[in-house]
Every structure is written in C-alpha cells, then in structure tokens.
From TrEMBL, chain A:
Protein name according to UniProt: tRNA (Adenosine(37)-N6)-threonylcarbamoyltransferase complex dimerization subunit type 1 TsaB
Domain Gcp-like: 34-140
Matches recorded under InterPro entries: ATPase_NBD (IPR043129), Gcp-like_dom (IPR000905), T6A_TsaB (IPR022496)
The keyword Transferase is assigned to this record: yes
Taxonomic classification: Bacteria, Bacillati, Actinomycetota, Actinomycetes, Micrococcales
Pfam family, one: TsaD
Presence of keyword Translocase: no
GO molecular function, one term: transferase activity
From TrEMBL, chain B:
Binding site for Fe cation: 113, 117, 312
Pfam families: TsaD
Protein name: tRNA N6-adenosine threonylcarbamoyltransferase
Keyword Cytoplasm on entry: yes
Originating organism: Microbacterium ulmi
Gene this protein is translated from: tsaD
C-alpha cells in the first residue's frame, strides 16, 4: 500500500492500494497550518485505511504501507517542506522508500482520469506561488504507462503573464486550489509499476531564497 | 518509566539537532549546522535555514541512531521543539517528528526550546543534579533570556529578555561594522584579545535607574550597536586612527557587563545563590570568566554545561522530554504547531488531557 502526502497547497493524506484502490483520503484546505494538521491527518488516514477500501463490505486486509509518495511541489515553501519532512520521517520509521512526485502531475492525472474517454486537449496546471506569481506545468494527455505527459517542466511566471504564456503553448488553463493525495499515490503507483523515476528527490522550490548579501555596514549618522 | 529512551528533534534556528538520551544519559548529540550558508548574508536567513533543515534531518537521525547504537523501534518517545524560534524552521522539525511518532506508534512530546537549554544541564554527568531554584541566563544568536527556574518540568518564570537584538546578533552586527566575518562572536573575541576593554565606555543598555524600574531584567543591545557604529564614524570623519581591537574589547565588555550584572541582580533579588548559563554565546570566554569571578564575589555558584550542549541541539530537547516522562507527564497530542514566540512558562505544549489518555 502507498501512503500519499502533499502539502504544496493544502494538506492532504491518502492511503491507496498498489492497484489504485483508495483506502482513505483526508485533507485540509487551509493554505497555512500544515504543521498543525499533518500528524492528525496521518493518524486518521491510517485508521480509516484499516477499515478497508472506501465502500468495501468484506473484511479488509491489514494496512501494510510499503511506500510513501510525496508531492515535491511546486508550492509555497513553508508548507511544502512540512509534507516532505513528514514523508521522509514516516518512511524512515517504517524502513520503506519515499517516492517523489511532481505535485502538478497529480492534478493533471486527476483532470485526465475524470473522463477517461474524453480527448483532453493540452492544458496547463496553474497554482498559486505567492508573490504575484503562478507556478504552471503544461500537459499532453497520458503516456502508455498511464502517466501524464509533461510538455513543459514546472516553472514560475508573473500572474499577469500566465494567459499569454499558455496561449503561446496552445494550452488551456486549469487552475488548481488543492492537490489530491490519492492522485499523488496513484502517480507513484503507476511510476513504480513502470519502473520509472519521474520526479526529483529535492523540493521543487523554483525560486532562490529571498536574500540579498550584506552590502556592508550602513551609516547611522551622528 | 525509569529511564526512557528518547529521540529529540531541534530545528528552531540554524542547527539541525538530533539527540538521543536514556534517562539522563547522553547517547548521541548530532548537529548539522547551516551556519556556513548564512555567512555571506551576515546573519541567519530563515529560508536558507529551513531548506537546510529539510535536507539534514534524515541523515542526522540516521547518524544519531548509529552513534547511540539503538534502533527507532527501541525508542520510548519522540520529542520536538515547538518554539520559540523561526516558524518556517520549526515546522520542518514538527512535520518530521509527528510523522515519525505516528509511523512508529510512539508518544510525542512537544517542548519549549528555552527550557530545553536548561534541561541540557541534566546530561552533564560531572555536575550532580540541578538544585532549585536557580536563575538561568540563556544567551545565543536567537535569544537573550533571564529565567527563574523553580522546577524544570513545572515551574519556569521569565524574569526578562531582550527588547530588540539578541546578544549573539549584536556580536554579528558589530563584527560587520568592524569588517569582520560572520559569525561575529569568535571574531570579536579574537580582535578583543589584544584590545583594552576600558578604552571606550560604551553604553550599558537598560541599566540607568530610570530604565531599571520597568526593565530590571530586560536587555537591549541595539543602542549599543548604534553607539559603536557612531563612535567609528566620528573617528573616520575626523580622519583619526583608532584601534579596532579596543573597539571590540570595549564592546564585548559592555555586553558581558550588562549580562552578568542583570543575572547576578536576579540572584540577589530572589535570594537564589545559583546561576545556570546556557546558549551558544556562553562559548565566549570573557563572558564565562566575568560571570565566574563576579558570581564568586557574591557567593553564587555557576553551572555551565559542556559547550556542545549549550549551543542549540536535539539532546537538550530529548533531555527535557525525558524529565517530563520520568515525572509522569502524558505525551502531547498531535494538534500543535510552530509557535515562534512560545512563552517559557509553557514547558510542554498540547499535553493530552487525562480523560483522553489511552
Ligand atoms: Zn537556543
């Protein structure tokens, strides 16, 4: 079973079986408060997962988490780190691997699975990056492994430039205000099934720390 | 539980600290510092510190377990700093600690960083048990606090704290004025070694009679920093030479004087002949010398934990949780966050209510 965690926007935790059946999915949409809620969401998700797949009537198999899938962003840094730190620590506690996932891939998979028979045209997942910027990634359907195809890698853009950029790329705009942890886990499940590594192991900050080196002492006047 | 095995996680500033203790026995004190990354900015940059914590946590936990020769499954509890400190930095440790506790099914203790500095003393095997009450002076780049400790786990009172810069920050800023690199403490010390501490009479913040009424135990170092800058500018404007060594020594003397004077005043006022020193600035030899000499004159006994336990570290967090456990305290719930201004009276955060305890 895969534990999915994402804190790139809200805080989301899910437990998904290796074949994609969702055992538990809980989230908090609070754009702050990731550190406050992450522990309780993990505890609740594992508790609900023990009851079996959502809607199941027969006695469930025990919860045996074998991987932790985590959204590596892009997303506002302070919250994003909470999920990555939690995923790594949970995995360390169980002696299991972490599977990094691009958070936008989870949104894209959600979009593409909503109507599996529709021919979804090229689209850009757009999320808040604070400081009057958006983070965006452009997608072109699913590949043979059932994974969303990135036409561009995640990048930042000033908010008033997003529509022009997406028009240049011929992509429809899809704003996302939440990332599903079940979709994070499902992306990981598909990547694992295909034996592929599809995200970096470091957080997708996309922005250097906002600091300017000291320009020497300021005069204080006399 | 007689001697709980506790892993402590500390990420309140620029040190990623993982400590493992069994009761009052130190098994590991693993510290990864991002200090070098802050050097070019002349001070701790919160975002740089938080990024470094995220990268350092897992390898530090693994290194601490290896050093202690224990496995995560042997632990009786996980402990973490809830505050005070840099919010974004604290959150990394809290996220990791909560997930580790849930993953292992172990209790979690969320504790106060400042009280942790006092708890570091319990790990000092050469020192014998801490006697109460004691005054504690905690001085670092992040805080300058004077506390009255009646009991480590139940009763810590804030007597005073800095109203502006922490003492360690003042060292960094004055080092920069003198063109010395970061961190400023050791640099100022080196320059001061050949300087005259009485050459320039820099102001002692909040030490005038009019200030003492309201701020008897509070500190202020921002005026001192400005006084140093102004003094140098005046010399430079007049085209006069001056000795940077004298400036460093005189500045350091002003800081040390005000710290020790206020700490010993607290000892006298509260009739407490014991003073505990903690925090990274305790590494400053002049501060230790002056504190020891003046305390001896007043019949005050000074305790100083080993320096590796004075700077921010995870062992002190584990040590505090260990004391809480040994005194029968219930663990924290999972419902707490980072509290950058957590008051020192909150020794443990979000303790489970009795009726909810399993
Ligand atoms: Zn400290």
């Amino acid at each position: 079973m895969i534990l999915g965690i994402d804190t790139s926007l809200g805080t989301a935790v899910a437990v998904v079986e290796d074949d994609g059946v969702v055992r538990a999915e809980i989230s908090s949409d609070d754009p702050l408060g990731h550190a406050e809620v992450i522990g309780s969401l993990l505890e609740r998700a594992l508790g609900e997962a023990a009851l079996g797949p959502i809607g199941a009537t027969s006695a469930p198999d025990a919860v045996a988490v074998t991987r932790v899938a985590v959204g590596m962003g892009p997303g506002p840094f302070t919250g994003l780190r909470v999920g990555i730190a939690a995923a790594r620590a949970f995995a360390l506690g169980r002696g299991i691997p972490v599977v990094p996932v691009v958070s936008h891939d989870a949104v894209a998979l959600d979009v593409l699975l909503r109507d599996p028979f529709a021919d979804v045209p090229r689209f850009g997942v757009v999320t808040d990056a604070r400081r009057r910027e958006f983070a965006y990634t452009v997608y072109d359907g699913l590949d043979d492994d059932g994974l969303p195809v990135r036409a561009t890698e995640p990048a930042l853009i000033p908010r008033d430039g997003i529509d022009e950029r997406l028009a240049e790329l011929g992509a429809q705009r899809r704003d996302a205000h939440a990332v599903s942890a079940a979709m994070i886990a499902l992306v990981a499940a598909r990547a694992l099934a295909a034996g592929r590594e599809i995200a970096p192991h470091d957080a997708l900050y996309l922005r250097s720390p906002d600091v300017t080196p000291s320009a020497g002492p300021k005069r204080v006047g006399t | 539980m007689s001697e709980p095995l506790v892993l402590g996680i500390e990420t309140s500033c620029d040190e990623t600290g993982i400590g493992i203790v069994r009761g009052r026995t130190l098994l590991s004190n693993t510290i990864a510092s991002s200090m070098d990354e802050h050097a070019r900015y002349g001070g701790v940059v919160p975002e740089v510190a938080a990024r470094a914590h995220l990268e350092a946590l897992q390898p530090s936990i693994e290194a601490a377990l290896a050093e202690a020769g224990v496995s995560l499954h042997d632990l009786d509890a996980v402990a973490v700093t809830s505050g005070p400190g840099l919010a974004g930095a604290l959150m990394v440790g809290i996220g990791a600690a909560k997930a580790l506790a849930v993953s292992l099914g172990k209790p979690l203790y969320a504790v106060n960083h400042l009280v942790g500095h006092i708890a570091a003393d319990t790990l000092d095997t050469d020192a014998g048990p801490l006697e109460y009450p004691t005054v504690a002076l905690l001085v670092s780049g992040g805080h300058t606090s004077l506390l009255l400790v009646r009991d480590l786990t139940t009763d810590v009172e804030l007597l005073g704290e800095t109203m502006d810069d922490a003492a360690g920050e003042a060292f960094d800023k004055v080092a920069r004025i003198l063109g010395l690199p970061y961190p400023g403490g050791p640099e100022i010390d080196r320059a001061a070694a050949s300087g005259d501490p009485d050459a320039i009479r820099f102001p002692r913040g909040l030490s005038r009679a009019s200030d003492l009424a309201k701020h008897r135990y509070d500190f202020s170092f921002s005026g001192l920093k400005t006084a140093v800058a102004r003094w140098i500018e005046q010399r430079e404007a007049a085209g006069e030479d001056f000795s940077a060594e004298d400036v460093a020594a005189s500045f350091r003397e002003a800081v040390v004087d005000v710290l020790v004077t206020k700490a010993l005043a607290a000892c006298v006022d509260h009739d407490v002949p014991r003073l505990l020193l903690g925090g990274g600035v305790i590494a400053n030899r002049r501060l230790r010398e002056v504190a020891l000499a003046r305390a001896a004159e007043q019949g005050v006994t000074v305790r100083i934990p080993p320096l590796s336990l004075c700077t921010d570290n995870g062992a002190m967090i584990a040590a505090l949780a260990s004391e809480l456990i040994m005194s029968g305290r219930r663990p924290s719930t999972l419902a707490f966050g980072a509290d950058s201004t957590l008051p020192v009276t909150e020794i443990q955060v979000a303790q489970e209510r009795e009726e909810d305890a399993a």
